[in-house]
Design brief:
By secondary structure, the chain is of the alpha+beta class. It has helices at residues 43-48, 89-100, and strands at residues 2-3, 33-36, 49-57, 60-68, 74-81, 105-107, 125-131. The chain has a single domain, classed as Streptococcus thermophilus LMG 18311 protein like (3-Layer(aba) Sandwich), CATH 3.40.1720.10. A hairpin with a 5-residue loop joins β4 and β5. It starts with a strand and ends in an 8-residue tail after the last strand.
Length: 139
């Protein structure tokens, strides 16, 4: 399921071992989640979040953090990227359920056009945010 290099000490993320819901594209095989130290250029994020985890997931990189929300409290934030293409739906969905479990409501936000940010260095990054409180009602 997941392995962690022995040379880096940190609290490991807990992985949900259940069956990923929904269907998968033909030929999809779930890659191993291998937890790694956060890249040096992102270690500042550790100071801004409650938790920070980094994973190799096949050809994708996944970051999982627990950050302050605008509503008070903390919310999970999952970023998944691929170096040459957008992550597939199966990759996004599998990372989301393995790392966030079945009980959270996560959303991929597409903002109003005037608030949209596209950074070329992050062209193949998808972001998921936990919906909390009233945001998650009905989902």
């Amino acid at each position: 399921m997941a392995r962690v290099p022995a040379s880096y000490e940190f609290e490991r993320a807990k992985l949900w071992p259940g069956q990923i819901p929904g269907s998968h594209e033909p030929g999809f095989e779930e890659p191993e989640l291998c937890e790694l130290p956060p890249p040096k250029e992102l270690r500042w994020l550790k100071r801004a979040s409650e938790e920070l985890h980094c994973f190799a997931f096949g050809e994708c990189t996944v970051l999982l953090s627990r950050e302050d929300s605008d509503h008070g409290g903390l919310r999970w934030h999952l970023s998944i990227s691929h170096p040459h293409r957008h992550p597939s739906w199966d990759e996004i969905k599998t990372a989301r359920y393995r790392l966030c479990g079945p009980d959270l409501v996560m959303a991929m936000i597409l903002p109003r056009a005037e608030n949209y940010v596209n950074v070329p260095a992050q062209d193949h990054v998808m972001q998921l945010w936990e919906l909390i409180g009233a945001e998650a009602e009905g989902w």
